[in-house]
């Protein structure tokens, strides 16, 4: 059972609650006043019970708050003494927040379709001329236009910049694709891009060596 000092044991820090006979740190009352979307942040919701796997987060539920207020306790959902042991999928990716009538709120769920791709000059490491890589990307980039994201609580936007990393094997086929700079925000689009890029045929590098490519891309979106 929790000691009577549970609520005061954390001193001037965040409050504590007694859950299943244990003292857990808890979010204080979070200010949600805002003047713009940039004032707001989202925290995973702390549940009032502990799941069978020891997790205290209410997976899939979130708390919108003022960025300053949330920043003071952001670490709590990552701290086992407060949240228990939770799977990464329980909080990743965290949805976005918007400012509505002076209060922070979860963004509406919207879906995105890619409508265009703009490529900047790539960084290429290996025995393959830049023109050979760029010509293939320019010729095939339109294939990414059908990539779409399922409805998610994301702040509305019309474009997204990221860096596509991939490796061209000795046979000219794409051996590896890394979309880490986009996957946490748009997992469906990232998976679609990875699938399409693996189909792009490049020239065989000289000496049967591999080539690493870092390609800055900008995706244009239409929102539903």
Give a quick precis of the structure:
By secondary structure, the chain is an alpha+beta fold. The chain contains five helices and twelve strands.
How many angstroms does the end-to-end distance come to? 51 Å
Average pLDDT metric? 90
Low-confidence stretches: none
Tell me the structural class.
Answer: alpha+beta
Please count the helical segments.
5
Q: How many discrete structural domains?
A: 2
Relative helix content: 10-25%
Oligomer: single chain
Strand segment tally: 12
Topology as H/E string?
Answer: EEEEHHEEEEHEEEHHE
Shape: elongated
Determine the strand fraction and express it as a percent band. Answer: 35-45%
How would you describe this protein?
By secondary structure, the protein is an alpha+beta fold. The chain has five helices and twelve strands. It folds into two domains: 91 residues, no CATH class; 115 residues. The relative contact order is 0.15. The model has no long low-confidence stretch (mean pLDDT 90).
Comma- or semicolon-separated keywords:
17% helix, six-stranded antiparallel sheet, two-stranded antiparallel ribbon, 224 residues, single chain, alpha+beta, 2 domains, elongated
Architecture blueprint of SSEs:
Elements: E1 16-19, E2 22-25, E3 40-46, E4 57-66, H1 67-73, H2 80-83, E5 97-100, E6 103-106, E7 109-119, E8 123-125, H3 130-140, E9 148-153, E10 159-168, E11 174-178, H4 180-183, H5 187-197, E12 211-223
